[in-house]
Amino acid sequence: MLVAERVHDALVERVATRAQSLKLGDGLDPDTEVGPLVNQGQVERVHQYVEIGLEEGARLAAGGARANDGALAKGHFYRPTVFACVKPHARIAVEEIFGPVLAMIRVRDLDEAIQINNASRFGLSASVFTADVNRAFRAMRDLDTGIVYVNHGTTGAETHLPFGGTRGTGNGHREAGHTMLDPFTEWKSVYIDFSGRIQRAQIDNP
After folding, report:
1. pTM to 2 decimals?
2. Which of 108, 133, 165 is the endpoint of a domain?
3. Which residue, 108, 135, 170, sits at the end of a domain?
């Protein structure tokens, strides 16, 4: 998460507080906010990344530990984790962790945020939160990702629209929407003249 420096500290505190209050539990329970990881191996992987983040000098604002108390001991849970003061090229910022770990990076302005985003080797989706419509349109234009959301999280569930990433994300095609047919289609163009007479080229017709 790339955060403007003027709101960075306050947002870190709010996000960390919310992360600590999230309810972990059975993913089929409607009251659960954070479900389990897929297996114990993934729990260990997430914890290794937390240790990497600490070694890289990031500040742990919330979480950073396995959740195995009470009923959670029967599953593969990890406490929602928030890092602050993360460097743009830190491993926890540029590698896919696939766990409840958030890296918050302080940026001067939108230009720096776009530069950091586009330097990543991944480019599936991005979201920008702003009250400035001009900044929103600049972000839509300049962010090198397959999907851009404005004032909405990156849910990745827009099945009626083309879905896919740039750079190291995806295979270059777009899934969902009508474009999902393109990789499996051989196009044939057909022109029919039913006038019954020889036609000149369109550019020659008055």
Report:
1. 0.79
2. 108
3. 108
Read off the pLDDT of residues 136-155 as tens digits, 9 standing for 90 and up: 999 999 998 888 889 988 87
The dihedral formed by the CA atoms of 52, 143, 139 and 90, expressed in degrees to the nearest 10: 10
CATH code of the domain covering residue 81? 3.40.309.10
Distances (CA, A) of 86 to 33, 154, 191: 25, 21, 59
Q: Do 174 and 180 touch, CB atoms closer than 8 A?
A: yes
Mean pLDDT of the chain: 89
**How many angstroms separate the CA atoms of 156 and 52, rounded?**
28
The confidence band for 75, taking pLDDT boundaries of 50, 70 and 90, is very high
Q: Which domain holds residue 143?
A: 110-200
